[in-house]
Structures are given as structure tokens and as C-alpha cells.
Amino acid sequence: MLNIIKADLFRIFKGKGIYISMLSVILLCSISIYLRSPGHIGLNSGSTSNSALEEYQDIESPEDVRKIAGENEMTLDEGMMKANGNLYYPLIFIVFAVVCVDLSSHTVKNVISTDVSRKTYYFSKLLLTWGLGIFLIILSTYFGYFGNIIFNNPSNVSNILDITIIMLRQLPIFCGIMSILVMIATITKKTSRYNAIAIMLIMLSQMLIMLIITIFNIDSNMIMQFEFETIIRSLAVVGSIELKTLLIGVLMGLGLTAGSSIIGIYYFNRCDIK
Predict the structure, then answer these.
(1) What would the pLDDT profile of 194-241 be if each residue is shown by its tens digit?
(2) Are 179 and 256 in contact (CB under 8 A)?
(3) Which residues neighbour 267 within 8 Å (Cβ) at sequence distance 6 or greater?
(4) Is 177 buried (19+), middle (13-18) or exposed (0-12) by CB count in 10 A?
(5) Whole-model pTM?
(6) Measuring CA to CA, which residue among 21, 149, 16 is closest to residue 86?
């Protein structure tokens, strides 16, 4: 397993994918630092009051965004951690570099034929994906933290320990999401199929949740607490959080990891590798 991981690391850092992922994370953080407002992608952006909407209708320049964001009671880095759902997209590139390249170039056949079991191969890819993904999360967390201290008001920045705790809370659900992406890459094999499904996955899952809520008239709060971006946002709170919130994040992460790994290994053990 270690030999596979070492070989993959050498290959990945010789390519461009990992550096594109790092630059995308730095760019997202830099925009948020400059605007003093975290970027957000997705349907779940929380409730917005009419007064807040009126304020944002008057925005004409980045300076206006900085002024409004600066009046927010939430600390800058806490706000950025709440928008960590955006890291899903750089993680797509990580899985592409770790899994899809081998499968699409058919080099996986050479690895498996050298006394390496398919289960070992799959878990080596999963562990490497976790490692590189966590590296990006750490980069995002501390680049944003120290960037806000340097370029914005340090009094509106949390304690570094608080931000580290938030990051650790979010890791299980991120590992679950990365596990799903590895499963998708293993099943689809083709790069184009993987990219199409992975890019649309979060949006489609959110639309499905909204459709279920509408059709069955279910309390939205009951279902949305299990949605990816909602979990990320609810865990990004400075100080203590409810045990229920923490358990949802941890158990969802473990459940997604276990479920996707079982499906991925089951398929990979039985598929025809050319």
C-alpha cells in the first residue's frame, strides 16, 4: 500500500492538478479576505432578512461589500469556515488526479497484476485522497486565518485554537464526501463521466431534498440538517456546539465513508479492468 501511495505522490506532484487545486483554494480565500465576506455556492445560504436584502441591492463596488461585511457580528474566519462547502470543488480535482488518471490510462492493470489486491489498491487511493484533501482543508483554514489577521482587523478574527477545532469538526463529513467521490471515480472510470457527475452531485442532491420537502410537505429543518453544506455551516461555530450537531457531522461522515467504500470495493472487485 505504501509503495502505491509513494508512486502516486511522485506522479501527482509532477503534474498540474494538485497545483491547480491549491491555487483555486488560495484564490477563494483571497477573494473572501479582500471582500471580508465568504463566498458561497449552493442552495443553502441561510435565512436573509429584508433589511439585509435591501443593503445588498445597493452594492456597487467591492468597497461596499467590505463595508457591509465589516458590520457583521460574525468573525471573519468563522464566516469563511461556514462557507467551506466550496472546498468540494477543489476536492473533485484531487480525486481526478489520484483515481481517474490511473483508470483512464489503464495503468491500474499493471499495478494489480503485481500481487496487489484490488482491495489494497482501492484503500491506498482512498487514503491518499484523504491526505491530499485534508492538506487542502488545512491550507484553506490557515491561509484564510492569517490573511484576515494581516489584511483585515485582527479584532474581528477568532482565536487560532477555535478555528482549528472547527476544522477538526468538519473533517469527518469531508472524508465522507471524498469517499463518495472515490467511489464515483471507480465506478465511472471515464474522466468525462466522473467530472459530470461529481460537479453536479451537490446541486442535484440539494434539488432532490427541496423536491422531497415540497412534495411530501416535510419540515425542511428536519431534512436539511443532514445536507452537506448545512452540516458544514452548523459545525462552524466558535465555542461549544450542541452534541446533536456534532454527532450528525461525525455519524454522517462515518456513514458516507462506510457505505461508499463497501459499494466501491464491491464494484471494483467484480469489474473488468482493461
Answers:
(1) 989 998 998 888 888 888 888 888 887 788 888 888 999 999 998 889
(2) yes
(3) 183, 186, 187
(4) buried
(5) 0.83
(6) 21
